[in-house]
Amino acid sequence: MNFLEGTRHTPTKHELKKSPYKNLLPPKAGGLAFVLSAMGDYLTKIVDVTIYYPGGKKSFMDLVFGRIKTIRVKVRLMDIPQELLGDPEKNRKQIQEFVNNWWHEKDQDFEALKLI
Q: For the whole model, what pTM was predicted?
């Protein structure tokens, strides 16, 4: 499991990082690059999970105490492009482009989950 944003989303972090996305922080591709270089021979897919909590930000304790009544989830299975495998230093630009495109789609998915 890898969280490419690297931290929890807050309005302050969103503003400080000057995120180009409406709902997400900019992704960090370094962790994914490491996983692909170390385990790429064993991986063919990425499971992308987008979760939206209607009614605003929720905490783990809200989940524990049953205060979260509804969540909206989108799960998609993505192929890992072969050109991303191998030496992460050589593939850095391609990995970052892949992640940026993925995040653009994920931001649109998040926006769609709000409308359900």
A: 0.87
